Amino acid sequence: MTIPAPQETISPPGTLLLIGGVDAVIDRAVDLGLRVILMQHPDKLTLRQARRAALTLVADYTDWSTAEPLARAVHAATPFGTVLSLTEGGMETAARLNDAFRLGGASHTVSRRLRDKWLTRSRMAELNLPVPPFALVTDRASLAAFGQRAGYPYVIKPTGTTAGYGLIRVTGPAGLDDAWTQVRRMLGKRTDRGSTLFTVRDFLMEGYVPGPEYSVEALSFAGRHVVVAITEKLVADEHFAELGHALPARLRPAGEKALTEAVGTFLDAMDITDGATHTELRLSPAGPVVIESHHRVGGGHIGDLVREVYGTDLLTEAIGWATGRRPALPGPPPARGAAGARFVVRNPGVVTTVSGVEETAARPDVLSADVTVRPGDTVRPLRDNWDRLGSVVVRAPDTTQAVELARQLAEEEIRVGIRPADAVVPRGNTAADAGGRGTPGTIRTEDSPPRKAVEGTVRA
């Protein structure tokens, strides 16, 4: 590993070590006047990131034996005052570096508790928060025993992945053999679609929670939690893919109050004191139940929706508060209209044509529209978020209009021709997997072929 000689022995004020993240995260940090040292996974690096960061470290940041000595070497040459991650795969590394350098921020204990769904459930049970029955999968017999104890249906999920990857719904004893086969196939392996940064180490079983689903987008300031938005989630019971998001959520005042209070109690229980959180809940007949939470801004264009409706940029506020560049929000911002996102989904098969995207994106009531597939790509059966083919994000006077407009555009105006596939492709070989991801050690942009990492990067 070689490190270029720094131009100065002491970094200027406001130097941030950023672990992973998409272009928008680096953009917000640089726009805040921060000097960004980016530690980025080779699969995730883009040319824009390398150009905007003052120094780019190309390394598998999920590997502590690589990330820790690299961070120490860089800190000795060009010190940083803050370590932060706003991407799921970088959370624990950032927290461990905060501990190692005594920089404050979320500790590894707190980060691990939120990242690991078993630890989250255990903490909730310990503090008597509402929680469904739950247990770890140990063998085939444990699946049957849990069904007898908790009833059906129930859900099996990896303890440390995201975006619905690996979720299994068990509807009755007849489905146990298939569920066990799926568990054994994924256990011990890296996630092989979308984000490949996670290893499936354990599976959690938990009782099914009925009721509509929401997510709460919050910012915390020294232990004070500000709920910026409540997002209404559009879901279906037959799969685990989110079909869309809309806000403000169509809730009665009592429901909004219950969700807000539940999230505040949950964040206190998890010892979350600062930064952005995205907490997913179901409003069950007995009240709100937290399904899971993340110490970052929610995906699926939620940040775009919040910025449109509330005028609050969650990334800017989270980065600015962590680095002393932004003050705490005084309270929840008022809504100014509504917005919605709808994801493009189609039946499985092979893509023959794609049209209508540019025309849709050009509409004044559309914030963005995109499709990630091209003719010849294979579309797999819809199971989780990685099987979606694109999205449409819209603005409207109220939430109902936003939901309907986004649905109509995603289903009717964006046209994706599909012919039935002769066979289902193996997991990890689909159009959604391609997603613009480059091969390890390359930089890819939409308008350029893969290139070797640019000059000025450090490779571990």
Automatic annotation (TrEMBL):
Coiled coil: none
The keyword Isomerase is annotated on this UniProt entry: no
InterPro entries membership: ATP-dep_AA_Ligase (IPR052032), ATP-grasp (IPR011761), ATP_grasp_subdomain_1 (IPR013815), LAL_C2 (IPR040570)
Residue ranges with Basic and acidic residues bias: 444-454
Keywords: ATP-binding, Ligase, Nucleotide-binding
UniProt keyword ATP-binding present: yes
Annotated region (Disordered), positions in chain: 426-460
Span of domain ATP-grasp: 121-323
Protein name in the entry: ATP-grasp domain-containing protein
Organism of origin: Streptomyces sodiiphilus
